[in-house]
Write a structure and sequence with these properties.
The chain has 407 residues and is an alpha/beta fold. It has 2 domains: 5-24 and 80-284, HAD superfamily/HAD-like (Rossmann fold), CATH 3.40.50.1000; 294-405, no CATH class. It is 45% helix and 12% strand. The chain is built from 18 helices and 9 strands. It has helices at residues 27-33, 37-42, 50-58, 77-83, 95-101, 104-111, 126-131, 177-186, 209-217, 231-242, 259-277, 281-284, 303-309, 322-333, 336-354, 357-373, 377-382, 389-405; strands at residues 10-15, 115-125, 140-147, 167-170, 199-203, 221-226, 248-251, 294-295, 312-313. The strands form 2 sheets. It has a 7-stranded mixed β-sheet, with helices on both faces. Helix 9 (209-217) links the parallel strand 5 (199-203) and strand 6 (221-226). Helix 8 (177-186) runs parallel beside helix 9 (209-217), helix 14 runs parallel beside helix 16 and helix 16 (357-373) packs antiparallel against helix 18 (389-405). It is elongated. It starts with 9 loop residues before the first strand and ends with a helix.
Amino acid sequence: MTKDPSGQRSIAVVWEFEKTLSADCLQPLFARFGVDPKAFWRSVPQDTSYLNHILEYTAAELSTALPPTPAFRGLSNSLLYELGPEVSLYDGLPEFLERLNGSAEVAGWATLGIRVDHFIVSTGIEQIIRGSRICPYMSEIWGSEFDESPSGSDYPLFATADPTICGVRRSIDGTTKPRILSEMNSRTGKHTEISLQNTIYIDGSSSNVPAFGTVTSHGGRTFAVYEPHDAAQFQVAQQLQQQGLAHGIGEANYREGSFAATWITNEVRDLASRITDGRTVSETVGRPKATIGLGATTRPASPEFRRRAKVTCAPAPEDASWPTFAAACKRAIGTEFEKREADLRALHDNYVGSLHDRQLSAFMAEFETSSMGTPRGRQRHAAASDNSDFEKLLTFLERLYRKHKTV
């Protein structure tokens, strides 16, 4: 099929739902029927999809194979849809999508023929997702689905005889996601044709590693999220980044000013600039971009900085700009530098990893000049008086980074 050139002017933000937009889309189902979630998940056989286990619970009152348990009696697709609004979303949702889609930047890109579309490709149940508060912001949703009739559409007379779910129509897992993403990359549907090189993929599930590989291999951007205080999920995200499969990682928090919200917004902006400039993937992607935050350094970074950064990333290669950066930091925060050196080294390494040579050179020049001019006065004038010099320095560096990142 010949690709429609208009497809190259679409930015696709593709989300997993589970552990990415919501901690658990099945929680309302468990609550409605009084099922213990831990007991349910413990009883899912390793070689069986959780969808089949839901079917077993739906027919539990008719089965002698399961121990007595509250069953999903009469569960139907319409009931799954009705449970959608009860799904809890992560902090900042759906407001983040409202801000992004309604921004003046996005409106300006539209005049150039560039659109931003959101999609969900999820292992979660599609009907629940479609009923959730996130659905109105999505262009299309792919999720796991149930049949309500064993005969399905082949025998329409029986299709509505019993709406109780009784079979799996579609099951999406880590192995089927790449196929769906590839199909998105080669088809034109009701939306502009999608190009994976203009795609941002966001996922917090440990079972979806192949999807990260599919997107990165086509030149797209990837971001792995993890729940706060979930060490196992954090380790998975960190490994994805160390393997070059995730360009950034951060907490599943999308409030204004959060790292995830900032990273995604900046990547959308960067893709839009790449499209308008006509740049190629090789000119802009090259290597996975590191993210602003805590990195693996020779000394452990402080808990305060970890909480502020809300992300961990792999260290950047050794760079000669560190002495200049360190000297400017010393002028800015004085004796506090010794205590904060590990934090600032991590921040420096991330700048080196995410700024191009020209951007980094301009960033370092302006930072050095500013630090020699008024090492602390400007920061105190720009920030609240009760903020520490370190906090003011971080705020200054974040603004300076954003300024030069867009050049």
